Automatic annotation (TrEMBL):
Gene3D superfamilies recorded: Jelly Rolls
The protein's name: Germin-like protein
Presence of the UniProt keyword Transcription in the record: no
InterPro entries: Cupin_1, Germin, Germin_Mn-BS, RmlC-like_jellyroll, RmlC_Cupin_sf
Entry GO MF terms: manganese ion binding
The species this protein was found in: Trifolium subterraneum
One GO cellular component term noted in the UniProt record for this chain: apoplast
Length: 208
């Protein structure tokens, strides 16, 4: 009798798991702290599990001479609930992905063209920097400040994989100098000269 009950329970658990193979995001519904709700299974197609948005290079004609093309849940609904996402980095010669963090995910960088100097700062203020060539990879632990710079004359391309469908992003320079964070508070909390702070705000469009 016990074996029958055990086998029945196992069958029901397997059947239930089969119904939860995936949760393609319903992007028409609001995003929540627990993610997007699932699309009805009848409306899911194979196109929900494929994404072509990383084929084309990003536009690097900007102040950082670089572009990040995301394949997060908002662009790629099939990754909803799977604990991963991706992106493409295009860095022109002399370009940089400035110091930034991903509060919600670890990051793995794969260099596919050129050379990228990349690094991160640990919570103990230790800096880890490495120049990577095509085929090499580097990991950036969740929440730590990190950067990527094109190390060659012809620029570089890399692909990144995150351990979350919504890794989040905060760029340090933009948080300080492209926001309404007041100059006196920035000066007080960073020890930067107020003249420099105002100059950087004028470049990045900040106020205050």
């Amino acid at each position: 009798m016990f074996q029958i009950i055990f086998l029945l329970s196992l069958f029901l658990s397997i059947s239930n798991a089969a119904n939860q193979d995936f949760c393609v995001a319903d992007l028409k519904a609001p995003d929540t702290p627990s993610g997007y709700p699932c699309k009805p299974a009848a409306t899911v197609t194979v196109d929900d599990f494929a994404f072509s948005g990383l084929i084309a290079p990003g536009n690097t004609t900007n102040i950082i001479s670089a572009a990040v093309t995301p394949a997060f849940v908002a662009q790629f609904p099939g990754v909803n609930g799977l604990g991963l996402s991706a992106g493409r980095l295009d860095i022109a010669a002399g370009g940089v992905i400035p110091l930034h963090t991903h509060p919600g995910a670890n990051e793995l960088l794969i260099v596919t063209y050129g050379h990228i100097t990349a690094g991160f700062v640990s919570s103990a203020s230790t800096v880890y920097v490495k120049t990577l060539k095509k085929g090499e990879i580097m990991v950036f632990p969740q929440g730590l400040l990190h950067f990527q710079i094109a190390a060659g004359k012809s620029g570089a391309v890399g692909y990144v994989v995150f351990s979350s469908a919504s890794p989040g992003l905060q760029i340090l320079d933009f948080a300080l100098f492209a926001s309404n964070f007041s100059t006196p508070l920035i000066t007080k909390t960073t020890f930067l000269d107020p003249v420099l702070v105002k100059k950087l705000k004028s470049v990045l469009g900040g106020s205050g």
